[in-house]
TrEMBL record:
Transmembrane segments: none annotated. Belongs to the OmpP1/FadL family. Its main location: membrane. It is found in: Cell outer membrane. Gene3D superfamilies: Outer membrane protein transport protein (OMPP1/FadL/TodX). Residues 1-17 form the signal peptide. Pfam families: Toluene_X. It comes from Mesosutterella multiformis. Keywords: Cell outer membrane, Membrane, Signal, Transmembrane, Transmembrane beta strand. InterPro entries: OMPP1/FadL/TodX. This is Membrane protein. One of its GO terms (cellular component) is cell outer membrane. It is a multi-pass membrane protein. It comes from the Bacteria.
Length: 445
């Protein structure tokens, strides 16, 4: 998905899926907690979740949808301080189209936002050195094709072009002074996905989908800023080092400058103007994931569905951020995540020929295995989902969908000063909740 900043941005992860992954590519799917994703045949989300499921869609169809969310990331420090990293982000949008070429071949296109987040804290709060502001936007363009082998088996494959635009801000110490670092970076990455579907009977089918990892090497800038007191102190230290190069203070400053690969001109630049901009960037892999799904037509009016999804978050071992010549040890963010699992069950009930209602529940396991690697930008935790939704079919062409979801963070939610084994607990997230509402429309030609 995204690059360096993307990782840190994952902070808004608790609002969505594990880490900083976004599930919300379907309003009907949202209404049943994404059970049976890609093989339900009641919207076009197969273009993203499982291209083989496109063989359930006749003719030419177009879909548009969006999800709004509100987060509550209430934090209380051991010193009594309080924070809340919630920050409004743009709606999560999706656009899809499918076309049936003949009885065997389908084509489709999905334009979605598969990763994202946004959060913001006071820049001088106690956890600022591990991040105080982040935002991530990703857009994935995914064309795909499907082949109906026979009445029981279908397969599909697609290609992804993924764009990321991310920012991450952290508080740093430079030559003994507080310096605020902001990374702005973007990148294009590329990957692929495949899917299969087996219709065992007229009433039961199963699906399997796999999406590859995408490597991002984002490029941009890192801007360092300091306040008036920091400017004054750095100017005085630099001037003293020049006038008294043999002093202990000067030797210490020069050693620090060499470690950071900064010249006197660099130091004086930030000291005199209060800001300095360096070339920067970040590197990380967006994880691979796989899903296994089923749908069972329990009765003429009711369908039951389920999903199991695995995400390879263990590949997200370290977020590498480059800031000019600054050494990695000052800017890297160790993650040490584990693979995550998502389980969901849902139902759809046709109450009239025009109206369908649905609901679902899900359990989403956090990729954070060691709480000392949790940051305020990524206050991830295990989650429980509860969802409701409905569809109104106005006629043979128009379908309107709505859904609402509550995601509740549970279990361990502590925050530590650092990832060191002896680091002290500095606080806890009392609440990690997300509330989402979505609406969409499908048009069938």
């Amino acid at each position: 998905m995204t690059a360096a900043a993307a990782a840190v941005l994952s902070l808004s992860g608790p609002a969505f899926a594990g880490g900083f992954q976004l599930n919300e590519q379907s309003i009907t799917g949202l209404g049943r907690a994404f059970a049976g994703e890609g093989i339900m045949g009641d919207d076009l989300s197969a273009t993203w979740y499982n291209p083989a499921g496109m063989t359930l869609l006749s003719g030419t169809q177009v879909q548009l949808g969006g999800v709004e969310n509100a987060m509550d990331m209430s934090y209380k420090g051991t010193d009594g301080s309080t924070e809340n990293g919630r920050k409004r982000i743009s709606p999560i949008l999706h656009q899809m189209v499918t076309h049936q070429f003949n009885d065997k071949i389908w084509g489709g296109l999905a334009i979605v936002m598969p990763f994202g987040l946004a959060d913001s804290y006071n820049q001088n709060w106690e956890g600022a050195e591990r991040g105080y502001d982040a935002k991530l936007l990703t857009i994935n363009i995914n064309p795909s094709v499907a082949w109906k082998i026979n009445d029981k088996f279908s397969v599909g494959a697609g290609f992804s072009a993924q764009y990321i635009d991310a920012t991450v801000s952290m508080k740093r110490n430079l030559l003994g002074q507080n310096v605020y670092s902001r990374l702005d970076a973007d990148d294009w990455g590329y990957g692929w996905n495949i899917g299969g579907m087996w219709s065992a009977t007229d009433n039961f089918r199963m699906g399997f989908g796999y999406r590859s990892a995408i490597t991002h090497k984002a490029h941009g800038t890192v801007k360092l800023t300091t306040d008036a007191a920091g400017q004054k102190a750095i100017v005085a230290a630099a001037q003293n080092a020049k006038l008294n190069p043999g002093s202990t203070q000067a030797a210490s400053m020069i050693a620090a400058m060499r470690q950071a690969n900064l010249s006197f001109a660099d130091v004086m630049g930030i000291a005199q103007s209060g800001a300095m901009t360096l070339n920067g960037g970040a590197q990380m892999d967006a994880p691979a994931n796989a899903n296994l799904t089923f749908v069972w037509k329990y009765s003429p009016k009711m369908r039951l569905s389920g999903s199991i999804r695995w995400t390879d978050w263990s590949s997200f071992d370290n977020l590498i951020i480059n800031a000019g010549g600054l050494p990695h040890s000052q800017t890297d963010v160790p993650m040490k995540w584990r693979d995550s699992w998502f389980f969901s069950l849902g139902y759809d009930l046709d109450i009239t020929p025009k109206w369908t209602i649905r609901g679902g529940v899900a359990y989403d396991r956090s990729p954070i295995s060691n709480p000392r690697y949790r940051t305020a930008l990524i206050p991830d935790a295990n989650r429980i989902w509860a969802t409701l939704g409905a569809t109104y079919r106005m006629n043979e062409h128009w379908q309107f969908d709505i859904a609402a979801t509550h995601i509740h963070g549970i279990g361990e939610r502590n925050l530590y000063a650092s990832q060191d084994a002896n680091s002290q607990k500095i606080g806890r997230f009392d609440k990690l909740n997300c509330y989402m509402v979505g609406a969409g429309v499908v048009y069938r030609f």
